[in-house]
Amino acid sequence: MIPTLEWTPAGVRFLDQTKLPLEETYLLATTPDEVATIITTMVVRGAPAIGVSAAMGLALAANSSTARTAAEFAESFATSCRLLADTRPTAVNLFWAIERMRRVFAGLLAAGASMDAVRSRLEAEARAMYEEDIAACRAMGAFGAELMPDEGTVLTHCNAGALATCGYGTALGVIRAAVERGKRIHVFADETRPFLQGARLTAWELMADNIPTTVLCDNMAASLMRQGRIQAVVVGADRIAANGDVANKIGTYGVAVLAREHGIPFYVAAPWSTIDPATPTGDAIPIEERAAVEVTHHGGRQLTPHGVGIRNPAFDVTPARYVTAIITERGLLRAPYLGSIAAGVSATQ
Ligand code: MRU
C-alpha cells in the first residue's frame, strides 16, 4: 500500500507529494509546527489525509510539550489546535479531526489523567483514526463498485486516491474496488491545473496498481464526453454541506455540469467526516485561495507576464442537483440530500 503518512516511533513520516511522480522521498515531522508546514505546502494533501495528519500533529504536540502543570499542558495543546486549524480552510476533515482530539484531551484532563496517560491516549486516538480511514475507504469502494460500468472509461478529477487518504482512496478506492471485482475500467485522469494532482498523483498511483490510465488536459473532457468516450465520473470531496452541495478541487463543478449535459452519472465518494451538517449550503463553505505562484510558474519556470492579475481559488462548489449519488462508508446517499444527510446524522446520535 502507498505509504502516504505513517506514525513511527521517531515521528510522523510523510511521502513528499510535491516531489511525485519523479522522486519518492519522505519527510519526518516531530512537532505540530512541522506538521502544519507539511499540510500548507501540500507535502500531504487530500481531505482525509489532512485530517489524520492534524490528529497525528496533535499527538506530537502532547508528546513534545514541556508543560509542568495541567493548565500549561492545556494551553500548549490549544495553541497547537489553532496552529493546525489555520493550515487549510476548506477540508472539513481537518476541523473534525482537531475537534475529536480536543475532546479526548479535555475529557482526560477533566478526569485527572496524568500527562503521560494523555500522551499515550492521544497517540492511540490518532492511530485509530488512521485505521478507520482505511476501513472507510474500503467500505466506500464496496458500495461504489456496484455503480461503475462493467467495462468502460471513468473520469476523475484531482487525486482522491491512496495519496489523499491513509490508503486505498475514496474516488480511486471505488475504481480500485470495481477493478478488484473484475470490472474492466480505464481511467481518464484530468490533469487538474494548477497543482496537477491528476497528472502527477492519480496517474502515478493508478499506474502502480496497473490500472489503465490516460491523462487529459482539463479542457479535453467535454469533447470526449460528446464522443461517448466517458461512461461515469467519480470524484472526492473536501466538504459536503447539509443540502448535498459538494466542495472539491477547482474544476469539479465544470465536470459535473458537462456530465449532466451528456447524461453521464456524476458520483462523489467521501467519508462521513467530510459531511458538514453545520454548513447549510455550498455558499457557506470557505474556499481556500492559494498563492499566485502556483498559477504563474510551473517547475520553477514563469509562464505568465510579470504583473498580470492572477486568481487561484483551490476549490469550487458543485450544487447537489448535479450529484447522482454520494458514496459513503455507510452506503449511498441519494437526492434529496437534505433528508438523506439529516437521516444519516441522526442515525449516529
Ligand atoms: O488541494 P488538494 O490536493 O488537497 O485537494 C484535494 C481534493 O480536492 C480531493 O478531491 C479531496 O480532498 C478529496 S480526497 C479523498
Give the gist of this structure.
The protein is of the alpha/beta class and about 350 residues long.
Q: Would you write up a description of this structure?
A:
This protein has eleven helices and 16 strands. The strands form four sheets. A seven-stranded mixed sheet has the order 6-5-4-7-10-15-16. A four-stranded mixed sheet has the order 11-8-9-14, covered by helices on one side. The chain has a three-stranded antiparallel sheet with strand order 1-2-3, covered by helices on one side. The model has no long low-confidence stretch (mean pLDDT 97). The protein folds into two domains: 134 residues, Up-down Bundle (Four Helix Bundle (Hemerythrin (Met), subunit A)), CATH 1.20.120; 205 residues, Translation initiation factor eif-2b, domain 2 (Rossmann fold). By secondary structure, the protein is α/β, with parallel strands linked by helices. It is 42% helix and 18% strand. The structure holds 5-S-methyl-1-O-phosphono-5-thio-D-ribulose. 5-S-methyl-1-O-phosphono-5-thio-D-ribulose binds next to helix 2 and strand 9.
